[in-house]
Amino acid sequence: MAMVLVTPASAGTTLGASAAEKGRYFGTAVAANKLSDSAYTTILNREFTMVTAENEMKIDATEPQQGQFRYSQADPIVNHARTHGMQVRGHTLAWHGQQPGWMQGMEGTALRTAMLNHVTQVVTHYRGQIYSWDVVNEAFADGNSGGRRDSNLQRTGNDWIEAAFRAARAADPGAKLCYNDYNTDNWTWAKTQGVYNMVRDFKARGVPIDCVGFQSHFNNDSPYVSNYRTTLSSFAALGVDVQITELDIQGAPANTYRSVVEDCLAVARCNGITVWGIRDSDSWRASQTPLLFNSNGSKKPAYDAVLAALNNGTTPPTTPPPTTTPPPTDPPPTTPPPGTGACTATVTVNQWTGGFVANVRVTAGSSALNGWTVTIALPSGATVTNAWSADRSGNTGTTNWTNVAYNGQVGAGQSTEFGFQANGTAGSLSPTCAAR
Ligand code: XIL
């Protein structure tokens, strides 16, 4: 008798593989001093596709004395990630916390200059190796003000956040740049709205922000709430990616972990989830047992719930679902729609040894665009590793780039931009553009 095994088409057996099937990463915070613990690295290497240095990229670690940069704590984490095919979230460049002593005592112009130098130096050191940077961490106040937190950085002027983002973009145009905070999960909280308004303002004024990180340290004082999905989707609608960056949940209830995963999968621009440690014994809040693995390394019920949610989830929509009836307010065109205006594409390349970033500008002709496709032939040896503000097909050879939801409509003579990062050498690129 033949036995028939029915395996669901999508059923990864690790967090990273299952998240990847949904176009997401699954990450964890990593402490450098645990990389010698084989029980720890066994789980790390098996389950995770993204790592964040728990403390080793913070300001006190990377610039312990002013002007003396030290990467000896963070580099082992980055190297471990690279040799095991994992990506890296950079955490964090400008923060009131974990400042070295020399910075804690600084104010005003001297501090602003030192902060921008720190951003530039550290981002340059890791250029091409970071998926996304938490450029600024925890700049908003708790409570009902919805305003900024007081700090020496804030006292240098309200524009310190955008200045940090501009410096980071200049140093590594290929990294996504995130604002990261906690207590911003509940859509009704003033702090959430304060950050939302800042991001909206940044997008309106062209400040280079690509993503918002939600730490999502859930506990009895800051519990998971069902409007979390609304929070994620509302930020995403501003034209930024969203990432769950430091997830832990007091007591690790399986249902709550499942809901968080389902919420991320429900938002196309939710790139992935990072838990803040592997085993409960690795947690900064170990007494809350908030993680997915017991201290002995065994999987907790929350692990099973997360894996199941990743496997049952839907893939992010790449095209809007077809409507069954035409929208009533949309009259049929009396003439076939004319070919939309042609477009041109130009490219600016920032090349370094072994890699480059290409920023592509799409400009509409004499008619507005309702969607565009750019074709770029890459020379052999060039492979796209990361891209923003366009969907792509192909990583090598002939690559095709189409608009995403928010940048398809370009007025006559107007422009929009997308970009990508690649390994190899760009040579001279000749993009062509067509209307869709
Ligand atoms: C925590 C680390 O987990 C601890 O080891 C360290 O003692 C303090 O910082 N928000 C953040 C993280 O952005 O950097 C913090 O990490 C947790 C809260």
Largest sheet: 8 strands, parallel, barrel
The counted number of beta strands is 19
Q: Based on CA inertia axes, which overall geometry fits?
A: globular
Order of H and E elements = HEHEHHEHHEHEHEEHEHEHEEEEEEEEEE
State the assembly state of the protein chains. single chain
Structural class: alpha/beta
Radius of gyration: 23 Å
Show the helix and strand layout.
Layout: H1 15-21, E1 25-30, H2 38-47, E2 50-53, H3 59-62, H4 75-83, E3 87-95, H5 101-104, H6 108-125, E4 132-137, H7 160-171, E5 176-181, H8 190-205, E6 211-214, E7 217-218, H9 228-236, E8 241-249, H10 254-266, E9 270-275, H11 301-312, E10 343-352, E11 355-364, E12 369-370, E13 372-377, E14 383-388, E15 391-393, E16 398-402, E17 409-410, E18 415-423, E19 432-435
Parallel strand pairs: 1-2, 1-9, 2-3, 3-4, 4-5, 5-6, 6-8, 7-8, 8-9
Antiparallel strand pairs: 10-11, 11-18, 12-17, 13-16, 13-19, 14-18, 15-16
Helix pairs in contact: 1-11, 6-7, 9-10, 10-11
This protein binds (3S,4R)-3-hydroxy-2-oxopiperidin-4-yl beta-D-xylopyranoside (XIL).
